[in-house]
């Protein structure tokens, strides 16, 4: 284990940050920062520059203390372990859908029942997300991580008992356990990034955390068709091949559960950024989870993002679930290549995620980047739709890669944009609501697109998604970019991006904390 007191390093903003005066512990009343509560028990402050100035003044008010921020080396181990068990969870989500014809034959069920092995992830998420985000806020990061990795392993072992025809109910129950594990996983990337990483790397860290889930989907597209070839005339051989996949997944997930217990800590010894130092100074007993939810739904930019994120991510879930059916409709017997196309889609998206994360850390252009990626995803899906039936698999590989680069590259953008426009509300709560929206849209899109694909053609299903993504573009364009977290950090750090000089006449002294040039 890496010890924070001996391994902490000063990187960028690390070290002691002298404030203009002592910063007293900040009180949070009914979910609001000081000065925001109404006489009658609390009200939402109006959006806009006045609110930002008031919040900045409250959080960075003069006081004679020293705010010390450092980056812990443990953060890299935390990020790596989380990414790995998130990978395994995503692998278990897609392993049935990419072999829908194989598992339908093995269990003797319909394609719709196999689709439910994917959709159960979406169904479980919606009712459980509020309890899960409450647990994250009330009991912390470590317990949530252990629950996610532990349930992931439990579900994997239960699947090992379903290795016989006629045991579809057991494999559905096992997949439901993995689906519950997902509830404690999907909301963590932005929380891990904010709690453990500094402001110049937080978006990249979030992208890497999301990348683990994407990589799991990619491996889920690639590995199952190789491990479990379609052998309809030899059910025993099919069961043997499935057992290799199930037992291997169970062993890996168990190992990752133990690593989670060793590596994960609640938070580093020192906060990695000033925005985290401000949040950690707030007494936890004064935090209101209910009021935090109300604040988020009163935040119009967040509500717009909530819908647009759900549309884009739900469309990705639907395409991933139905990819096998779309490919084999036009290219019979190409199950392995269907998996490779899915791999291409997700790997390209992983590259897009990292590039977008690095771009956001450098420019902080959250809305512009999100809107551009949204538009390019729409164009990519249109091109994929109208080239799918040309008869050339190489064309599908290329168009699938372009689609994946933008569509899955969008995922971390939504997380980080939400954290920025909702600060100081909990990152886990905003991310959880985004994921809940994605699951709801994913269920609806999968059912409708699957029906259109079966009754008409894959083109009809894809055009249905295109129409919804166009709506998402309009909603994204309407979002007001109010980068609250970045404004707090830029007010106390000497950054190249939008740095505010100490004696700048454009920034009132009450809203910025002067920093020594030694930083």
Describe the structure.
The protein is mainly alpha-helical and 519 residues long. It has 20 helices and two strands. It has helices spanning 4-7, 49-59, 74-94, 100-107, 111-139, 141-159, 168-183, 188-196, 202-227, 235-263, 274-280, 289-298, 300-330, 335-363, 366-387, 393-407, 411-422, 427-455, 458-477, 484-492, and strands at residues 15-18, 66-69. It is globular and about 70 Å long. The model is unreliable at 1-57, 59-65 and 492-519 (pLDDT under 50).
Helix-strand layout with pairing:
Elements: H1 4-7, E1 15-18, H2 49-59, E2 66-69, H3 74-94, H4 100-107, H5 111-139, H6 141-159, H7 168-183, H8 188-196, H9 202-227, H10 235-263, H11 274-280, H12 289-298, H13 300-330, H14 335-363, H15 366-387, H16 393-407, H17 411-422, H18 427-455, H19 458-477, H20 484-492
Antiparallel strand pairs: 1-2
Helix pairs in contact: 3-6, 3-7, 3-9, 3-10, 4-5, 5-6, 5-7, 5-18, 6-7, 6-10, 8-9, 8-18, 9-14, 9-17, 13-14, 13-17, 13-18, 13-19, 14-16, 15-16, 15-17, 15-19, 17-18, 18-19
Domain Major facilitator superfamily (MFS) profile: 78-484
Membrane topology: Multi-pass membrane protein
Protein name: Choline/ethanolamine transporter FLVCR1
Give unreliable regions as ranges. Answer: 1-57, 59-65, 492-519
Strand-residue proportion: under 5%
CATH architectural label of the largest domain:
Up-down Bundle
Alpha carbon gyration radius:
24 Å
Q: What is the third-level CATH name, the topology of the largest domain?
A: Growth Hormone, Chain: A
Helix count equals 20
Largest sheet: 2 strands, antiparallel
**Helix-strand category:** mainly alpha
Distance between the termini: 29 Å
Count of all domains: 2
Strand order of the main beta sheet, please?
A: 1-2
Subcellular location: Cell membrane
Biased composition (Acidic residues): 1-14
Family: Belongs to the major facilitator superfamily. Feline leukemia virus subgroup C receptor (TC 2.A.1.28.1) family.
Catalytic activity: choline(out) = choline(in); ethanolamine(in) = ethanolamine(out); heme b(in) = heme b(out)
């Amino acid at each position: 284990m890496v010890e924070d007191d001996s391994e902490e390093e000063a990187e960028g903003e690390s070290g002691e940050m002298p404030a203009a005066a002592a910063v007293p512990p900040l009180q949070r009343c009914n979910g609001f920062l000081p000065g925001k509560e109404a006489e009658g028990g609390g009200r939402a402050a109006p959006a806009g520059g006045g609110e930002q100035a008031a919040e900045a003044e409250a959080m960075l008010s003069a006081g004679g203390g020293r705010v010390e921020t450092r980056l812990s080396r443990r953060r890299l181990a935390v990020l790596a372990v989380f990414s790995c068990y998130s990978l395994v969870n995503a692998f278990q989500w897609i392993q049935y859908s990419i072999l829908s014809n194989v598992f339908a034959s093995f269990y003797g069920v319909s394609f719709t029942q196999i689709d439910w092995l994917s959709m159960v992830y979406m169904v479980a998420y919606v009712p459980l997300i509020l309890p899960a985000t409450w647990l994250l806020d009330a009991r912390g990061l470590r317990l949530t991580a252990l629950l996610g990795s532990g349930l992931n392993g439990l579900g994997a072992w239960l699947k090992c008992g379903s290795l016989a025809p006629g045991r579809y109910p057991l494999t559905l129950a096992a997949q439901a356990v993995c689906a519950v594990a997902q509830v404690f996983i999907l909301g963590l990337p932005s929380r891990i990034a904010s709690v453990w990483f500094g402001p110049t790397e937080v978006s990249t860290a979030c992208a890497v955390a999301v990348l683990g889930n994407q990589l799991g989907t990619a491996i889920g597209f690639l590995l199952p068709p190789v491990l479990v070839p379609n052998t309809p005339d030899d059910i025993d051989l099919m069961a043997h091949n499935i057992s290799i996949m199930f037992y291997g997944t169970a062993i890996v997930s168990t190992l990752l559960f133990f690593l989670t217990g060793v590596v994960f800590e609640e938070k580093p010894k020192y906060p990695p950024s000033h925005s985290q130092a401000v949040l950690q100074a707030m007494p936890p007993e004064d935090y209101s989870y209910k009021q935090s939810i109300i604040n988020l739904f009163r935040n119009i930019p967040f509500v717009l993002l909530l819908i647009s994120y759900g549309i884009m991510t739900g469309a990705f879930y639907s395409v991933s679930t139905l990819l096998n059916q779309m490919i084999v409709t036009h290219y019979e017997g190409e199950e392995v290549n269907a998996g490779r196309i899915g791999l291409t889609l997700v790997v390209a998206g992983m590259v897009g995620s990292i590039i977008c994360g690095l771009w956001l850390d450098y420019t902080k252009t959250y809305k512009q980047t999100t809107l551009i990626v949204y538009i390019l995803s729409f164009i990519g899906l249109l091109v994929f739709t109208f080239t799918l039936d040309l008869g050339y698999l190489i064309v599908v590989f290329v168009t699938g890669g372009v689609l994946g680069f933008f569509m899955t590259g969008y995922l971390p953008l939504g997380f980080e944009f939400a954290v920025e426009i909702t600060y100081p509300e909990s990152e886990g709560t905003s991310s959880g609501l985004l994921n809940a929206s994605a699951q709801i849209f994913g269920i609806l899109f999968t059912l409708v697109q699957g029906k259109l694909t079966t009754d008409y053609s894959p083109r009809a299903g894809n055009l249905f998604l295109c129409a919804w993504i166009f709506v998402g573009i309009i909603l994204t364009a309407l979002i007001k970019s109010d980068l609250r977290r970045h404004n707090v950090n830029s007010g106390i750090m000497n950054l190249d991006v939008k740095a505010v000089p100490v004696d700048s006449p454009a920034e009132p002294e009450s809203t910025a904390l002067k920093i020594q040039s030694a930083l």
